[in-house]
Amino acid sequence: MQAMETRARAPSRASYHHGDLRNALLQAALKLVARKGVEGFSLREAARAVGVSPAAAYRHFEDRSALLAALAIEGLARLAVEMEEAIERAPGTPGSPSRAAAELSAIGTAYVEFAVANPSHFRVMFGPWCEHPQPGDLPPESFSRGRDPFHILVETLDGMVRTGAITPAARAGAEIAAWSAVHGLSSLLVDGAFALDRAERAQAMGLLLRTLLHGLGAAPAVIGPAVPVPTVDPRPEKARRRAAAARKPR
Fold this sequence. Notes:
mainly alpha
C-alpha cells in the first residue's frame, strides 16, 4: 500500500519540469543537427534527449520548424556579437578610409571564423528548412546591440562611403556582393571543399577583400598590398605551375 502511495506521489514524465527547458531543447537540437543533419530529427527526439515529454516540448515550440527558427536566431545573435567585437578591434584611425576597410575585413573574418567554429549552427541559420524573418527583418530585441549581422554589414558599407573609401555610386548593392562572397567562402569551408587552416583562411579573406574593394573602385591605399594566396587549386602541381606561368605578364 505504501509503495502504491509513493508511486502515486511521484511526478509523471508528462509533468516533469525543467529549469530552462527552452534553452535545453535548443542545445539538444544543435547536437542532433551535428549527429543526424538538419532534417534528420524530430521535436520528439529533442524532447527525449532532454528527458521531458513531447507535450512539454510543444509548450515551447509548435513544431521542429519553430525549434530550428529559434536556433537560427540564436546563432545569428551570437554571430552579431562576434562581428560587433571584431569592429571594435579593427586597426586604424576611426573615421579614416583605411579604418572603414579594416572594419569590413573584420566582420568578414568574424563571419568566416564563426561558421568554421559552429558548422551545425551555421547550417541551420541559412537553410531552407525553417521559416524565419529575412535579413534585416529580424527582431531587434534578439540582438544585444540591436543590430543583426545584415544590419552590421549595411552600416559598415555606409561607413565606407562616409569616410571616402568608396563612392556612393559604388555603394549601391555592395551588400549583395560582400555577403555573397563571404558566405560562399564560409560554406566552402564548412562543407569541406576548402581545407584551410586559420592562417590560410586569413589569406583567403585578404584575397576576397582585395577583390571586393577593387570591384568597388577603392583607391590603392585603401586596398592595401597584395596578400599571399592559399593553395586551393585541385589540379596536379605541374598543371598549377603551367597555369601560374601563363598568368605572368610577358
